[in-house]
Amino acid sequence: MNRLETILAHKQREIEERLQTVSPEQLERDIQETLPPPDFREALRRPPGAPVRLIAEIKRASPSRGQMAPIANPIELAHCYQQNGAAAISVLTDARFFSGSLEDLRAIAALPHHPPLLRKDFILHPIQILEARAAGASAVLLIAACLSPASLRHLMAYAAELGMSALVEVHNEAELEQVLTCQPEIIGINNRNLRTFEVDPYTALRLLPLIPSPMIKVAESGIHTPEDAHRFADAGFDALLVGEALVTAANPGEKMKELIGVVE
Ligand SMILES: O=P(O)(O)OC[C@@H](O)[C@@H](O)c1c[nH]c2ccccc12
């Protein structure tokens, strides 16, 4: 099994357990009592001449890096991201491989005037989108490598029904071609191959010209230096998704300024 297959096998089991314990009706009632979440898509849109947007990620660990940062207080880190101009915050909610949780997301969603939150997980079933919305997320990640075109379309429609956005992630031309038939509003190009966890920073630059212009384009993974940020910003990406470089920085707020400060 490659790394992605191992993760997905585990995720299927986790979803089966969740379906035994959570009540969709209760989640729907909870949602009715909350305000609609802030608009993720609008937060990422970059008008001509404006600086590139930054999606700052809360990430403790990953299969490729192991434990990266303890992040004992995710609310404090989210607050720092908010103070330093994050357009949105990505919260890894997978526990087994990334040491995250839906609790992290819920706690951050309680911050006043927080930026839109993305549930970053391996989403295979609508219950995960319902849980994300109930926890306060504005958006979910949908990974083309994990989903058939039919299930991608179904999950995108369900997110829209709940007033949420979907960040649809691709890693190569074939995935992009499939995904474009579903007409997503936001496409993320992951420089990291989830089957091997290797990063090739040219992936996003190579695929960018193949994306029709009204779609919002996000470059993901392996962005560490101002030069990296500059390269993707100049190429025309609306937003950059950055995890490791921020969570391992001695001063994540300074690191954010360093990354977005260099782009005009
Ligand atoms: O830590 P990095 O290299 O800055 O990467 C962030 C983000 O792109 C990465 O966490 C990610 C992108 N797509 C994913 C899918 C699943 C898990 C994680 C990811």
Can you describe what's shown?
The protein is α/β, with parallel strands linked by helices and 264 residues long. 42% of the residues are buried. The longest helix is centred in the first third of the chain and has 19 residues, at 3-21. The chain contains twelve helices and ten strands. Helix 2 runs parallel beside helix 6 (126-135), helix 5 runs parallel beside helix 6 (126-135) and helix 10 (226-235) crosses helix 12. The protein has helices at residues 3-21, 24-32, 40-44, 74-83, 102-109, 126-135, 149-161, 173-180, 202-207, 226-235, 244-247, 252-261, and strands at 53-58, 61-62, 66-67, 88-92, 117-120, 139-143, 165-170, 186-190, 216-220, 239-242. Strands 1-4-5-6-7-8-9-10 form an eight-stranded parallel barrel, surrounded by six helices. The model has no long low-confidence stretch (mean pLDDT 96). The chain has one domain (3-13, 50-261): Alpha-Beta Barrel (TIM Barrel), CATH 3.20.20.70. Helices cover 42% and strands 17% of the residues. It starts with a helix and ends with a helix. Helix 8 (173-180) links the parallel strand 7 and strand 8. It is globular. Indole-3-glycerol phosphate (IGP) binds at residues 57, 59, 120, 143, 169, 190, 220-223, 241-245. This is Indole-3-glycerol phosphate synthase. InterPro entries: Aldolase_TIM (IPR013785), Indole-3-glycerol_P_synth (IPR045186), Indole-3-glycerol_P_synth_dom (IPR013798), Indole-3-GlycerolPSynthase_CS (IPR001468), RibuloseP-bd_barrel (IPR011060). It holds the Pfam family IGPS. One of its GO terms (molecular function) is phosphoribosylanthranilate isomerase activity. Belongs to the TrpC family.
